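Board notes (copied after class):
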Amino acid sequence: MNASTTTAAPGTRASKLNASPIVEEAIDRAIDEIRKVQSGITAVRPPLSEELAARYRELLAQASEVRGKSKLFFDYHGSGLGNGPFVELADGSVKLDLICGIGPMFFGHSDPELTRIAMRAAMSDLVLQGNLQMNEDSTQFSNLLVEEASRCSRLAHVFLTNSGCMANESALKICYQKHAPASRVIAFENCFMGRSVTMSQIGDNAGNRAGIPLSTLVDYLPFYDAERGEASTRDALARLDRLIERYPGQHACMIFELVQGEGGFNPAPREFFVALMERCRKAGIAVWVDEVQTFGRTGEMFAFDLLKLGEYVDVCTIGKLSQICACLYSKDYNPKPGLLSGTFVGSTVAIQVGMHILDTLRNGNYYGANGSIAQHHQRFVAGIEGIASRHPEWFGPILSPDDTAMKHIKVAGGLGGMMRFTPFGGRKEPVNKFMYNLYDEGVLSFYCGHGPYHIRFLPPLGVMKLQQWDAAFEVVERALARTFEEISRKEAPKAQN
């Protein structure tokens, strides 16, 4: 019996319920029915009827009205059923989901094994577990995380939260308390931390903090620039030295995104991080690694393990594919009682499903140079490069905000299950147009970067098959052709003038 199914102590009435053959038979029958019904969801398709399409448009209008916004980001409402990377919408259409809600659904839609776990979890007395009342699965989940983290770092404790943003809030409080009265924070340019009042101030996007009083003292360093290589590392280190000299003893922490998410799926070499982390250690500044998006999908469970940085990490935040988010910290950063709490950690379903996901990932063939995540990344890069070689006019040189060609940024990149590609030179308007055309044609994606702009995928690599990339690239190619034609028609009159 694995960690994800051991949720009731032997001899209790709950263990008797869990072992009931009546319950097992009922769940088996439900799972068999799900498998049978979802077997018809295997490819992208349009709405099943105009009647369903009309009802769907009404539903979308209601959603926009009740939210107080003019339009949803995508015209998306799910039916409640899918099949791996494919998801059925409420109009009966089917999309290939390669963004998965910006990462949480690593095992796609309606996975039978996750559904089985969720059905059992739904029998729990607690719909939501918290810090006053929790069941034993909360501690099992915590132990599993600490076990994996301590294998490659000094991280020894964990506090569970209901969102990545709240995990980051917990990390910041831990760093502030440890280094009081230090009140400044160092982060990378173009970082994203969440949308609470404080995290919106740390995140390097002015639009996300419009109207928010600025009360958090944040200093920014440039992230690694592949165009400049070692010079980029030297410049970032020099900037850090100037900050430490200007504000001696005033920085509580430096936040490290090992792969920038919203900033453009930008990786950096180990040497870049080591230089900065060693300088932070010397200056008594906490090293906080933000893995809310990287966790589980870069080639090892933790990206800091992939880069062999574990010895430097004081605090780490994780989330998304784990279902329940968390802040991990070393013994030296174990906070005083009362600093961390909260009414709810999350649902019992999320806790038990998250345990099953972590257990599956660590015992499956997902990680390492020959793991399935690496194979998917190679297939993704090869597919995009193939399209670019056949249709270079859809891509062109990748341009910086000042229209300088960025030769070191390849047309397809990212790391592991964090995948990005850059059509139309990375220009904002055509990239956004392509993203919406891609959705219309049947593939869910999202954007990232601030110039150049990229299309990003966070595909469900827990269940996606390598051959399913063929269907993805077929839609990508169709949407690229459509976008190129639309852009050409729009720009033709300008050229004539």
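Comment from the instructor: The first helix runs from residue 13 to 18. Residues 372-496 form a domain with the Aspartate Aminotransferase, domain 1 fold (CATH 3.90.1150.10).
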